[in-house]
Structures are given as structure tokens and as C-alpha cells.
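Chain particulars:
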Amino acid sequence: MPRSLLPLTLAAGVLVAQQVAAKATRDALFLSRFDVSALPVAMVVSALLSLAAVFAFARAMTRYSPARVVPGVLLASAVLMLGVWGLGRALPHWGAAALYLHVGVFGATLVSGFWALLAERFDPRTARQAMAPVGTGANVGAVVGGAFALLMSRRIQIPTMLPLLALLHAVCWWLLRRQPAGAGVAETQHAPSPAGLRVLGDTPYLRHLALVIALGAFAQALLDYVLGAAATARYAAGSGLMTFFAAFHTSVSVAALVVQATASRLSLERLGLAGTAAAHPAAVIVGAAAALASPRLWSAALLRGLEAVMRNSLFRSGYELFYTPLPAHKTRPTKALVDVGCDRLGTVAGSLLVLGVIAALPSPRVALVALAGASAVAMLALLPRLHAGYVSALAESLRSGAVRLDSADTLDATTRWTLAETKVALDRHALLREIETLRAAGRSATEAAPSIGAEAREAEGARAGRDPRLAAIEDLRSAEPHRQRRALSAPPDPQLVGWVLPLLAREDHFADALRYLRACAPRAVGQLVDALLDPAQDPAVRRRVARVLRGVPGPRTVEGLLHGLGDPLFEVRQQCGHALLRLSERDPGLALPRDQVFAAAMAEMEHGRGEADRGLEHVFTLLSLVLEREPVQLARRALQGQDAGLRGTALEYLENVLPESLRQRLGPLIGQGPLPAPSRPADEVRDELLRSRASWTLPRELSRER
């Protein structure tokens, strides 16, 4: 683990350890001072206060950076915890109530803010690398926090835990203050984001996500009361309750860590996001059945434990990825509202229902467990909608460029399929049809024969003993999709490239044809380049041939793609630029002719060919072929943003690196006059641009896949 991540990893562990120990202390102290019937009232008041706090927190996170907000809130929490301790020494009942409210207001809010801080402290690639060690630190912290509470429960009085909890938040604040702004991040003022509630109202996908969170919190509120009532009926107030809750939270933390480490990745790969998230409601349903069959403390602990383990492991793994398709201007004002606000709304609803059931029924346990199970069923019913919304939102974001993904960045099956869908320009229904067709193609000839029909079986018989290449040509020329697909699934033959090329224009065969041609490409570069540059070819074939060539490094490929930069069709020029960019990324030593690339960029700007935005994207793609790639791409992002300071830095950088002729043309294209001569050294401006990158919202990507 890099040394720069050590303070953040330790901070994550300390923060989560404090939260787990605080929950055990809160539950034990409250139930020692109050009857269990007061628990729903405390949950309602705590949730309402937390709801008000999360609106203020979300506003602060939008206006200021998480790096400024989170440490300040941590320090305030530590000071207030000491105040709660002092109140409890004078007025024990008031101190217990104040602790319950304090943990409810600060617990989940600080955890949500910490992950936002982590995400914004690094550029996206570094952030992905940082998530694993920091997440491990958080999981280990949960175990340590539970064990710490269990150990202290046997050595000190419950109220004495409060200054120790305050100390943990102070340590977390100190660790975050030690972490440098680092990773090239510079804080800047962001353009105002839309109000979170307005974004929620305008985005059905986010509303479904919020409803799933609220239903989960609703079930959790019911189960908290069931567990609390069972525990108080079994153990005396004081250290007995503290030991029970500490042992419970420790066991949950250990189990969540094990499940996260062993099953999370496999579940995401096999089941996708919705299937992984479904583990949480499914566990509640199973646990509810056990609790109804045997109404004892062990079954209540099992039910609440299963809910907590799955929520903190598999559900959390899938849930966080549901935000992938959303641009930053939607996630910033809404994530805390969904994560914490909707959670608190569900808690309020569940607690009010508990109060009603307690008043109406002498033995409320069965009804509450059944209602928790019903809430889990409702969550399961919502997850298919959430899955469909995710696929639709991610595909749209990939097409528009709001999100850029690569197969190396994707873990879960859902995102991989959606990424494949977008790259071949298929809608969701076409993708599902393609999947079903592929499954059918994998069956044996005997199983497939009844669906092919008698005529097809006769054709199969006639094929026996014939030249396989001639048979493949007949299949490729056939109008029957299953025969064409059969030929494309055979071992690649470079002599069939000419027969496969037309299938690139077919949306139902594009994926198979692309895979086949890429396998043949190293021995068929000449045929592919000829097809790319042949104006008589279908335009869809020509632009997609460029996608085949980007996986074939070599001088002939580069020469053909450079010629393609002058093609009359914008889509062909654009895909040739993307292909050259991919080749240069794979081979950093690849030297492209600067004059020829600058001439192609000049031609795009001079004639204004292609759509305005896409044409400008293509210009910057070309510039990044022969200039330092990262600053050029960052300059493009800054020019699309609203921050005047960053835009000025980007313009100054371009003034330094572009030839005079390009400077004169680029200025009017981006709404400026001709760019003046540089006033500062290029290295100084480049470094300033790199330091500013992580404070931007991600605009449309430079390379759009079609």
C-alpha cells in the first residue's frame, strides 16, 4: 500500500470502529435507562434530526469541498460527545437520550462524507486503486470497534465509553488533517449544482434507488425494536446489555468482512448489480421465516444479524455501483440525501409503525417480523426496475460521454453487458435477443435440429464432406441469421475477410463479425485498410473497420488510419482518430507525424466538418496524438466546464503548445478570438492544469464509441 494512502486507511478504520462501538454503547446505555417501548420514539426523533442535518450537510458538501467539511464535522462531533458525557454525569437519563440522538445524527452522515472525500481527493483512476486498501481498513475497523466495545464492557462503566468515542473522532480528524491535498488536487469553487430534491424529482432512476434505501431502513427499524425487546427481556440493564450488543456488533462486523472478502467479487461477476443487491432482502426473508418459526432471542439476533451482514457487504457492493451512470452534477447534491436522508425517512416510517403496533397488539413481535419480511419482498420487486434503469442510464451516459468506461474498469456482469451493448449501438431489447441467440448457437446440432426445421436439416446433410471454406462462404452469403452466426463462430480464416466485412453493418451480427475480424486482422491488414479507404463500401462498414484496426499495431495500420483522417465522411475520420489514439496508448513509443496530424486538425477546424461538439472533440483527439495527452484532454474538459479560472488556464496551455496557425483557428471555434502568444512557460501552465483536474465535474468524453 502506498504511504500516501496510510492516513486515509487508518482514518477509515478509526471512523468505522468509532461508529460500531458507538452503536453498541448507545443501545446498551439507552435500554439501561429507558423501557424498550421508548425505543421507537428515540428512533423517530433521531431520524428527524438526522434528516435535517443531512440537508445541511449536502448543502455544505455542494458549496465547499468534502476535504473541508468532513474534518470540521468530525471535530464538532468529538466536542459534542464530551458534552454528552458531561450531561450524562449530571442527568443520566438526558445523557442516554442525547447519546442516541448524537449517534443517529453523526454516524452515517460522516461515513457517507468520508467516501465522498476519498472519491474527490484523487483522480478517477487513482481513486479506484485507493478504494481497496481504504475499504479493507474500514472493514477491519468495524471488527476492531466491536471487539473494543466488548472488551471495555467488562472493564468500565458504560458512560465511561463516551470520552473514548470522542477521542476516536479526534484521532480521525487528526489523520485527515495529516493527509495532504495530494494527487494533484487543487480546490476550486464549483459551479452551482441543482438542488438535490429537484434532481431526485427529475430522475426516476434515482427515485427508485431512494425507495430501495427507504424500504431497507424501514425493515431495519422494525428489526431493531424486535432485537432490543428480546435482549432486554433476557439480560439485566447495564454491563449485561453492553456485552450482548458489543458481541452482536462484533460478530456482524466479522461476518460482513468475510462475506465481502470471499463473495462480493464473485457475486458481482455472476449475478450483476441487482442480483448482488438482492442478497440483502433475500436474507431478511429467510431470517424472518426463522424468527416466525422460533420466537426467541437467537432467532431475533439471527434475523437482525443477517440483515446487517448482507447490507454491509453484498448490498453495499452493488449499491455503490448503481451511481456509476450518473454525472457528478446529479450525484453531489443527491447522494447524501439518498444514502442518509431516505434512510432516515424509512427509519421514521418504521418507528411510527412500531409505535402503532405496540399500542394495538399485546405481543407485537410476530406482526413486526412479518412486516419486515413484506418490506424485503417489496425491495425484491423494485430491484428489476432499478436494474433496467441502471442499464438504460449507463448506456445513455456512455453514448453521450458523461461516463467513460473500459472493460478493465468494470467488474460486475451488468456493467460489462451494458458496455458491450453500447459499443455495438444496440438497445436493451436487441441485446437480450442477441444473448438468447448466442445461447441457442451454443447448443448441439441435435438439440438445435428441431428448431431449424426439415429443410435446414437437409442442408446440413448436404454440407457433409464439402470444403469447409466453401460451406462457410455459402453460410455468410445466406440470408439466414443462424447460418451466418454459425460461420462467424468457426475458427477465423483470413481468406473469408471479404465475405465477413458486410456483416459489420448488421446490428445483429456486428459483435460476432468484429470479434472474427479482429482475430484475422494481423494477417489481413491490407484487406482491412482497403475496405476502410474504399468510398464504395457501406459507411457503417468503413467506420467499424477502424475499430478492428485499432487492435493491430504496425506501420501499415498506422499509415492506413492516417489516410483515413482525410476521408470525406466525418464518422470515418472520427473512428480513425480513436483508433490511432488507442494504438498510441498501447505503444507509448509510437511516433506519429506531427505535421500530418496538425494538418488534419487544421482541416477539421477550417471547414467545420461534422457536428460542432463532435468536431471539436475530434480536433482534441487529434491533438492528443502528438502532444502530451493528459493536459490536452484536461484542457478539453476545462473548456466544456463553467469554471472561468480553469478555462483560462486551459486556454493559456493551448497557447503554449499549439502552432501559430492552429491557435488562430481554434480561438473562434471555442467562442474566443484568436489565441494570443504565450505569456508563461508551458511547463508552469501544464502543472497548474494538472493540479486542478480533480475539482472538475466530468464532461462528455473525448472518445465516443459508435
Remarks:
- Residues 530 and 698 are 37 Å apart (CA to CA).
- The chain is about 75% helix and 0% strand.
